[in-house]
Amino acid sequence: MNIFVSGIGGAAIGPLAEIALDAGYSVRGSDLYPSLISRELEARGVSVIYEQTAESIARVHQEQPIDWLVYTSALPDDAPELVFAREHHIHVSMRDEFLANFIKDHDLELIAIAGTHGKTTTTALTVWVFQQLGLPASYSVGSTLSFGPSGKFDPNSRFFVYEADEYNRNFLHFKPTISLLPSVDYDHADIYPTVDDYRAAFRQFIDQSGRVVLWRQTADYLELDAAQSDLTVLEGTVSSQEIRLAGATMRANAKLVLETLRQVLDSFDEARIKDIIAAFPGSDRRFEKLREHLYSDYAHHPVEIAATIEKARELSDRVIVVYQPHQNLRQTELMHHGGYGDAFNGADHVYWIPTYLVRTDLIDGAPVVLTPRDLIASLTDSSMVESAELSNELWHTIENHLRHGDLVLVMGAGPIDGWLRQQAQTEQS
Predict the structure, then answer these.
(1) Strand-pair category, 319-323 with 109-113
(2) Alpha-carbon distances of 206 from 24, 115, 124, 159, 211, rounded to whole Å
(3) Of 30, 211, 219, 267, which residue is least crowded by CB atoms under 10 Å?
(4) Dihedral, CA atoms, 207, 212, 214, 217, nearest 10 degrees?
(5) Cα(190)–Cα(309) distance, rounded to whole angstroms?
(6) In a domain, 283, yes or no
(7) Following CA atoms 365, 7, 115, 93 in sequence, which dihedral angle do they give, to the nearest 10 degrees?
């Protein structure tokens, strides 16, 4: 089968290309700019075109007819590649349809990790444990990994481990053997207009799952009957003695993984698995250590921010945060639900960068772009916050904090991570 992946460098869709390649499919793709994942694919021999026009996909199709075009949700419906594919009767879908068919065709049991926060790290941790146990597993993780590709198909595997994203209701295309939910909290107002819509989607996902492992807080938030026979509801907290990882949230997510593996593995050695979990190297952009005292993280939601800062405080007495909000429409909706509140209360100082804007933030009728001042005003305590820009001056400030031994945590889902890596690389070269 000849697959063409539009947006092939994306964190969510790039792993699909890895999987298709492993399965013996012919894979090509396009994107606007190179990324870690697109470079990873090019190193495997995948042809990637860095433009997305009707002319470019026509050339690809002429060289070798495309059977299936899989596209990223970031692509508008009238994108030239999609228009061309439909006009030429090429099968078109998002990644969820492709993966659901792939899992069914290869008779794999699906372990799905869903939720608002913690999906990527929890999926990566699950893959890590399988790998260290020497058990074959196929998987898709929405991040680059230090211990393997972002996506993989192993023909000897029984399980497929999947980061099941709720955006665009992606996760509702699947019927997992078992699902684990690290955390659920309202998000994606562009897809789910109300909190009830969001909860209903997760309840439907749970109904489609054979078994589900989750914490009491999540079960209560979704208004579930904890006595259901297909639910495993965990209670209490997880100490650093029980799970040897930094961060209460990280330990809680690891506990979900441990309980899930207890239910699906034919042979379960709890002590050994706990040792494997303790050695987890993490995934990229999830509390990723770039150099001594300097970390990058994808957090851009108040719950994620608070959890990441809490983890940092276990490692340092002084935590400095550099934060870039993501998408004005998200910020507008967040403000409608009370703003950032006490999300940054664990930080000693915060440098607040203007919001990263995307195409949908700039369309006619979009809300007025909220300024850093507007967003900072929603904090319960803004005394430690100051506005800043991604600049040489900010980098020098970060370096000064690092010299004094402060832990610097740079957070955001936009280009702030690329800026940080470029600055750190330039400094070391």
Answers:
(1) unpaired
(2) 33, 11, 21, 19, 8
(3) 267
(4) 20
(5) 27
(6) no
(7) 90
The two three-digit tokens of residue 122, written as one number: 């929890």
Give residues with Cβ within 8 angstroms of 300, minimum separation 6. Answer: 324, 325, 326, 330, 411, 412, 413, 414
CATH number for the domain including 408? 3.90.190.20
Stretch 144-154: mean pLDDT: 89
Four-point Cα dihedral 284, 288, 291, 292, nearest 10:
-160
Token couple for 296:
């990058």
Burial zone of 206 (CB within 10 Å; 0-12 exposed, 13-18 middle, 19+ buried): buried
Query: Which DSSP helix (H) or strand (E) runs through 109?
Result: strand 109-113
- β-pairing, 231-234 vs 319-323, is unpaired
Q: Which domain holds residue 62?
A: 2-94
Query: Residue 402 carries which side chain, given as an amino acid letter?
Result: L
Q: Which residues pair with 152 in a beta bridge?
A: 139
pLDDT digits (tens, 9 = 90+) for 251-288: 999 999 999 999 999 999 999 999 999 999 877 777 88
Question: What is the reported pTM?
Answer: 0.76
**Whether 272 and 140 share a structural domain:** yes
Query: Is residue 100 a part of any domain in this protein?
Result: no
Domain's final residue, options 278, 304, 323 = 278
| 131 and 269 co-located in one domain | yes
